[in-house]
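Let's practice the habit of predicting before peeking. Look at the sequence and jot down your guess about where helices and strands might fall. Then scroll down.
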Amino acid sequence: MKHMNSEVKEERTSNKKRIDLFLVPIVLIAAFLNLFKIWTDEYANAYYTAAVKSMLQSFHNFFYASFDPGGYVTIDKPPVVFWIQTISAKIFGFHGWSVILPQALAGIGSVLLLYVLVKRTFGVWAGRLAALAMALTPIVPAVSRTNNIDSMLVFTLLVATWMLFRAVRTAKFGWVLAAFAMIGVAFNMKMLQAYMVLPAFYVFYVVATKITWKKKIAFLTTATALMLAVSVSWAVVVDSTSADKRPYMGSSQTNSVLELAFGYNGINRLTGNTSVTGSGHKQPAQTEQQTASSETKQTSNSSADSSQSSNQRKSSSSQKMQAPGGGNQNGMFNTGNPGPFRLFQKGLSDQISWLLPFVIFSIVGLFAGVKFKGPYTTKQKESLFWLAWLLPVAVFFSIAGFFHQYYLIMLAPPIAAFAGAGAVALWSMYKQHNGWKSWLLPGGILTTAALQVYIMSPYVSSIGVAPIAGVGALGVILALVLAVRKQRKNSLTNYLGAAAMVVLLAMPAYWAMTPIIYGGNSMLPSAGPDSSSGMGGLPSTATNSKQSGFNGMQPPGSSSGNSSSNGGQMPGGSSNNGQMQPPSGSSNSGQMQMPGGSSNNSQMPNSFSSKSSSSKRKSGGMNAEVNQKLLNYLTKNNTGEKYLFATTDSTSAAPYIIKTGKPVMAMGGFSGSDPILTVSKLKAMIKKGEVKYFYLSGMGKGGQSDVITWIKDNSKEIPSSKWQSTSSSAQQGPSGNGTLYEITLK
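Done guessing? Here is the structure:
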């Protein structure tokens, strides 16, 4: 009891200090990693940026998170994060950086929150190390530098955690309600992903509060009811609104928010059945062989970067190493194969797992001697909270059928918390010669260094042998020296411990900087020497490191070769047949087209060549350019129609919405598969004078095939010379580059 009282007094004394000088450089590091050069990303994730452009134009669009200014279809996520992005764009002006800024600030905020959460119980040095580990976890800045949702989601969940901890300390039920209500807010950011932390909240509150079971059940039931009410509040309003008075709920099959939440953005992520056509047929996932075949077919479209692209292709090829336990490590979107060692496979380990062995040793140390029936110390209770966050989320990512690499940011807070708290705990056990526990520190250092060597080994052609050998050698040496010097107490031992932490954080720090060094991808953010590809290992062939994403894809109206029909989706969507969906008008002869690259049967038209001299990068992950000749033609010939033109999906529509702020109809929503439009509805729209131009590439899919067939049968084809930027290639029918049609009904 005396020891506990002394801890409380020490905590109060430390809290009187206004600024922790050691925290300042950590925050500056986080600010640099999250903010530096975000102003060079002109479009960010164009799908979401187009929505912000639309939401700025009316409260109707703002409330429903409409993808297009015409209020035809929403984006595939709830609106809260995009409300924040729209407010930011309203304050600072509409730019790529202004829609990224909220997420970048959320990334910095998460670092500060983790410091506060860990420091209070585990000590100031634990808080500092936890904050630093959070800042340097590679996937954290990679996501925070984009307008994707996950950084804001994690920040919100950490705010909820702070409220829960405060509820336990103060024994005030109001803070419990606030914590669970905040999870409800997070639900309106990314739906069921917010509920991944619920096991931690329930377990911690039950274990940490000293009230009767009757009160625990009553309080948690009430808090859960409030959470559910907040979670479905927006959904109930939207679903109860007449369908003709609001946009279609994008990526749902029944025009329902709740169906979107529990289907497409929910259970289907676990099962992998996230690709659903308009008729409701699920599509099989892409095989590893298809992925490998697609990778090998990529070529550079610029001789200026041919050597760089060659090195990246070699790196990509070398990455097909066996994962622990066997199995090729590519998987769909390079997320590996389901199994207990998935987080140690290529594509995932370098995003999140750098400190996992040290975390495992820390967990052993923190829970050593704990009895199941208690009593538990505050440190043990909060360690249980972080463990109950870490394990369910790790299990999900180990077995899930579909997710993207950047979802792994959900693992960053518990890993960072255990890294900070564990480092202090293991150091204390080591210094006190606490039996077998004193071996946990050198053991954790040795195994973590070994894993980091394993993580870096596929990238030897990109980063060289020196850093790999350096981490391995220093890790082994420091671990052995600490083991040998276990009985000695002097300043040298302290320096050795500090040096070991520096070694273990060095390569995560470098990896965290790679989106700045090599360029990032705003649609599929990831970290690493191949960060600009957004595919965790696939080659990028952009002509400039500032250019990333899908700049190699071609906008509607540029001419070259054949294009594949809608073969899949990018986030925010899912996969269809496991293949990436090229934008309407891209040229790849039926092959999957990689970020920044083109297929070997296509040529980059002069009107869409990469702008190596530009200080801005249009890395929207889509057709983050417009065909100016097409835009001029459509603008000139618009006779009062509501929509500038209609196209199959959001890929072709987004850049035109961003550039003009005018309505462009994505007939089938994000991927082109939403059953939004029928022939009779389209006829009515045409008769009302709402739309007359249609840009089509491929045959469409799902519920749109009948509509596309009708358009082609009842329209006039516009000669390509009037709207195409180049005329070197002729149109090749339904599977060609794309065709512009005009329909006028009387």
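How did you do? Strands lie at 298-299, 598-599, 646-647, 665-666, 693-696, 716-717, 739-742.
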